[in-house]
Amino acid sequence: MDRPIFPQQSARALLRGAALALVLGLAGAALASDRGFPFDRELFLDAGPIGKSRKIPSLEVGRNGLAAIELYCASGQGQVTVTNDAISIVPGPMVETQCTPERLRGDDDIIAALGAATTWRRDGEALVLVGPRTLRYLPATN
Which of 2, 84, 104, 114 has its CA 20 to 30 A from that of 37? Predict the structure, then answer.
């Protein structure tokens, strides 16, 4: 029968190892959740307003994939599918309000970029959508 020479020390070492593994596992899980897709958070496009309006486009994606899309002039919903670092965004019909041609062009550019995004990543607190054009969204600070 093999017995440890110092059974109490072996038990302590085992407990210390288990405690360390638990701490590292919890830290890793916390870090992973910070790096995960920011579902259910209102995110604002990292761009200034166009013209005299103060409105900044925003995006909020629910865990069910339903997205609320607010643009400079229009608003509506879309469907988002996130798998690992891949993303697919299908904007739905937008309800437009009366707006300047410059802001309407801004809406068209954002909708096209959302629909063409193929990957996403986190950059600190920001959500970066990557496709032919990169969009960067930041969480609300209020």
Answer: 104
Residues 142, 139: Cα–Cα separation, whole Å: 9
Is the pLDDT at 138 greater than 60? The verdict is yes
53 pLDDT band, cuts 50/70/90, is confident
Q: Residue 7: which pLDDT band, with cuts at 50, 70 and 90?
A: low
Give CA 41 to chain center in angstroms: 8
